Structures are given as C-alpha cells and as structure tokens.
Amino acid sequence: MSPRLKLFQAALSLRPRPSVRNRIIPISRPRFVPSRPITSNEKPLPEKDESGPGPNQDQLPHVSEEAAATGKITGEGGPEMEQGTPVQEILQRDEQSQEKAPKVIRDEFKSTSGGSRSFSTSARAQQEAMISFEDTGLETAGHNFELPALPLPSRMHMKHRYDPVIKQVTNLLMRDGKLSVAQRNMAMILNFLRTASPPIVNPDRPLLPGAPPASHLPLNPVLYLTLAIDSVAPLMRIRAQKGLAGGGAALQIPMPLGLRQRRRQAVMWILDVVSKKPSRSSGRGRFAQRVAEELIAVVEGRSGVWERRGAVHKQGVGARANLNHRRR
C-alpha cells in the first residue's frame, strides 16, 4: 500500500516566516528622577577623612578597662584584682606582651614594680587559713586532717547507711531485680506513714513493750514501720519432721527464729494480705499506699496478720511436747 501524504504538515512547513528586519523592537527610554534639594534643617553627610579611622572603626576597650571606667562612674571601684588569675605573672615573663596588655594591667605593673605580688589566689588563701598541726601536737604525717577512729561505726559504711529494717523490707519489696522501683515504693510507704493520722491502738492486741505513744509514731516513720513489723513477727516456726512418730509419720516440732527471720515472716504475711485485697484504683503509688494502710491496720489491731501469728503460737505451744521426742 502506497504511503499517504500529509498535506497539512507540509503547508505549515512551507509558511513564510517573518524576517528580523520587519520586527518592531520597543526602545526603553531612561527615566530622569529630579534630585531632592537639601533643606536648611538637614546636614550633609560628613566627608571621608583619609587621615584616620572612621567613627565605628576604633578598637573596643578591654573588659577590665570597661569595668574600671564603670566603677569610677558609679563610685564602686574598679575590678577586684586581688582574686585575679596569674595573668600578671605570665606578662611579667613576656615583655613583648606587656606592650599589648590593657592599660589597667600596665598601670598595675607600674605600681608593683618592686616584684612583690599584690594579690593572692584562692588556693593560697586556703593554705593560710588551714590549721597548723605543728601547734596541736597531732601525729598526722602525710595527712591534713585527723584520721578517723577505728573501727568505723556501721552507719559510716556506704553499703550499710540505711536502717536494717528499711534495707530488709526494700529487698522483700523488690521484684525482677528492680531495686530502684522498690526504693521508690519504700519512700512512698514512709511518706504515707508520716502524713497519716495517729493510729488508735487496740488494747486487746498491744504492741511491743516500751513502745512510744501512738501520737508520736508519725513523727518517726522508721520507728513506726519497725514497731508494726516486730509486733506481729512470730517467735517460732513449725517444722514437720518425718519418721519421728514411727511408720513414716511426721511430727510437728516448733523451731525458734532469729530476728531477721521473724521480720521476714511478718513482712511476707503483710504482703500476702495486701496482694489478696482488691485495688480501688491504679497508679504508680497505689501499691505503696496499700502496704502503708496494712501497716496502720497492724498497729491498730485490725489486720488479719494477728490471727496468723496467734495460730502459729498456738500450734507451737501444742507441739512443745515433741521437742524431747527421739527417733525410734
């Protein structure tokens, strides 16, 4: 099939183009702005002076020179040079730098040309204020202060700076090794005990003998916590020993507990009661508040921990006959 001819495109290509000669180029005329005459109230700009620097080309004065000028105007005096840095000593060893030093320092050199130092640093002032151990007669060779008396008290050790009860309860509150969370809860518990109203002690369930009045407990939250724990701490535990009764039967034998064991058992009982109580709300400090409320309930005799303590003691009194039982 023969190709078709595109006559329309051929007609566009054959159209004559206008030449450059026939174009009309507009010529922009310059605009002449009349100059504004200077009135009598206005001053002409100053002519440039080639001999010296301009009005804004002067070198700024040194900070000490500005402080000296300001002190002279206000009447407060110049800068405090007696507590200065050893810049003057550096300039004394460099004569070339003395020529470029500020005027205040150059004047200082002239006034102290005798070579004596007119100021003293804070280190030298502290050396003068230190105690002279030669007069006191103390044998402190190589030490500026008296050595501490040995043995050191327990509260001076960094790892034993807290109360033993606080440290033990904090470790029992800790979960998953998060000590910082347990310390925060312990601080919230003590703060809640400090800000709570004084407890009302139940005479049927008295606290330890020698305890302070109930109205004084919020003043010392550490004592408050210790008194609540020691009051419900059991004196013994019941151990089931197999084979003592014969035929594989076990006997209940009461075993005495130490101080830390007693406190640990009491804290575990309190935490068990707290975990079984329903929570009325949620939040970061809600757990600490529930523990503090249970401690207050222990002091007031309303907690169920007292029944558990009484049951253990009752069972231990009944099983005291098994202490002298021998294996058959």
Please provide a written account of the structure.
The structure is a single chain. The model has no long low-confidence stretch (mean pLDDT 78). The chain starts with 6 loop residues before the first helix and ends in a 10-residue tail after the last helix. A two-stranded antiparallel ribbon has the order 1-2. The chain has helices at residues 7-13, 63-74, 87-92, 95-99, 103-111, 122-129, 133-136, 164-173, 179-195, 221-232, 259-276, 286-300, 305-318, and strands spanning 236-242, 250-256. The chain has 328 residues and is mainly alpha-helical. The protein is elongated. The protein contains 13 helices and 2 strands.
Name the overall outline: elongated
N-to-C SSE string, H for helix and E for strand? HHHHHHHHHHEEHHH
Structural class: mainly alpha
Give the % helix: 40-55%
Give the helix tally: 13
Strand content: under 5%
Uncertain ranges: none
Q: What is the β-strand count? A: 2
What is the first-to-last residue Cα distance? 126 Å
Strand order of the largest sheet: 1-2
Major β-sheet, in short?
2 strands, antiparallel
Name the average pLDDT.
78
Write down the Rg.
Answer: 47 Å
